[in-house]
Amino acid sequence: MSDEPTYVTPAGAVLAFHDPLLLAELLDQEQRYALTRLDHDDAARLGSLIADLAHQRGLPVVVRVELETPDGPHTVFQRAFAGSTPDNDWWLARKGAVVRRFGHSSFAVGTRFRTEGTTFEESSGLDPQEFKAHGGAFPLIVDGALAGILGVSGLPQQDDHALAVEGLAAFVAEHHTGLRVAAERRHVQ
């Protein structure tokens, strides 16, 4: 059995970190979980939803949701759980920098380099103290543009990413249900 790290997709497929199918899955997740809107309240609800998952499972993570503003990133939600450390804040900032620079999840960016037979650290030309292409930062896209970043740090990178995606999927499902109900109410009136 290989010691190579793997990622288990929401559909249950087990993919190696250098597998082009993993990159395709990660990029598909970004499309699948694009949002119709993102304001301060939405960002706080998303962060709370993921924090609730982390709390229920006793995970030693930090959950952060930032909005992109004309004045720079604005942290709207952050929760740190027992077992997390200030290093997790550092990791979130560096993973978020990757999302801002490349427009894709930090896990997808790292995976893209691995599928090309190299690593982000070897080939990006970016300062590793400022940029970390490890899983856990996910772009929050509205109308094709980066509106915010969801971050999780404290677990192995594939698990940080998986928790972020699980929470975002639940948020999107809940949000779309709410939009559908609101539209139905408007239609009835």
Tags for this model:
189 residues; alpha+beta; two-stranded antiparallel sheet
Overall description:
- This protein is of the alpha+beta class and 189 residues long.
- The chain is 50% helix and 20% strand.
- The chain contains 6 helices and 6 strands.
- It has helices spanning 20-32, 40-57, 86-102, 106-115, 120-123, 157-188; strands at 6-8, 14-16, 62-69, 72-80, 137-142, 145-153.
- Strands 4-3-6-5 form a 4-stranded antiparallel β-sheet. A two-stranded antiparallel ribbon has the order 1-2.
- Helix 1 (20-32) packs antiparallel against helix 4 (106-115) and helix 2 (40-57) crosses helix 6 (157-188).
- Mean pLDDT is 92; it is low at 178-188.
Q: How many helical elements?
A: 6
What is the helix content?
40-55%
Q: What is the overall silhouette?
A: globular
What's the overall average pLDDT, rounded? 92
Class by helix and strand content?
alpha+beta
The radius of gyration computed from the alpha-carbon positions, rounded to a whole number of angstroms, is: 17 Å
Strand content: 15-25%
The biggest sheet amounts to: 4 strands, antiparallel
Please provide the ordered H/E string of secondary-structure elements.
Answer: EEHHEEHHHEEH
Q: Which residues form runs of ≥5 with pLDDT under 50?
A: 178-188
Question: Could you give the count of β-strands?
Answer: 6
From the N-terminal CA to the C-terminal CA, the straight-line distance is 61 Å
Strand order of the largest sheet: 4-3-6-5
